[in-house]
Amino acid sequence: DTGKPVAGARVLAMKDMGRRFFNSTTLERDVALTDESGSYALDTLTQGTTYRFGVMADGFAPVFSMAGMEVMQKVETQDFTLVRGGSIVGRVTRKDNGEPVVGARVVAAVGRMMGPPRRGGNEEEQKAGTGTATTGEDGTFRIENMMPGPVMSGQVKAPGYVTFTASMWTGNGWPDVEPGGVNEVVIELEPGGSVGGVVTDAKTNEPIPYAEVTVLPQGNPWRAMFTGSPSTQADGAGKFTVSGIQPGEYGIVAIAPGYAASDAQSDATKFTVPEEGGLVSRDVALNAAGVLTGTVKDAQGEPIAGARVRTRLAPQPRGEGGRGGRGGRRMMSMLPGGSGADLTDQQGRFVIEDVSSDRRWIVEAEADDFVATESDPVTVAPGDTKDVDLVLSRGGALEGRVIDDRGGFLPGVRVQVGYLPAERAGRRISAWEVDRYLDPTVYFTDDDGKFRAENLRPGITIVKAEREGYVTFYKRDVVMRADATIDGYTVSLTRGDVMEGKVFGSTGRPLEG
Question: What is the pLDDT of residues 59-81, one digit of tens each?
Answer without folding.
Answer: 787 787 766 777 766 556 778 77
